[in-house]
Design goal:
Length: 110
């Protein structure tokens, strides 16, 4: 997935997500292209969610699914992204997978 430097985060607002683990200096999702704040991480997740919703509205489900996958790479417990991924699975007619995503979304919902 694209890193933080490749994302346009203007106008994303705030986003609630689970507490970010301690940043490390390895090339992992927790690295986030360097030492950044939790707020920046939340904005990154929000940008993928916004992208997924936009593509879904345009009925470009493959691109919407890819945006969800990218968001889940950075935060696999985001209930909003999991819910949207479930909606996309419904659009693809993959109802069993949709149920799995909905159940995960409920599990991580605050």
């Amino acid at each position: 997935p694209k890193g933080l430097k490749d994302r346009n985060l203007r106008g994303c607002g705030t986003f609630l997500c689970p507490k970010v683990e301690q940043l490390d200096q390895q090339n992992t999702p927790q690295d986030f292209d360097g030492d950044i704040s939790c707020l920046t991480h939340k904005l990154l997740i929000q940008s993928y969610l916004t992208e997924a919703c936009t593509y879904m509205e345009l009925q470009q489900y493959d691109k919407s699914s890819e945006a969800c996958d990218n968001g889940l790479y950075w935060n696999a417990s985001s209930p909003e992204i999991l819910f949207n991924k479930g909606q996309i699975m419904v659009c693809f007619g993959k109802y069993e997978e949709a149920i799995e995503f909905y159940e995960k979304a409920l599990q991580f919902q605050r």
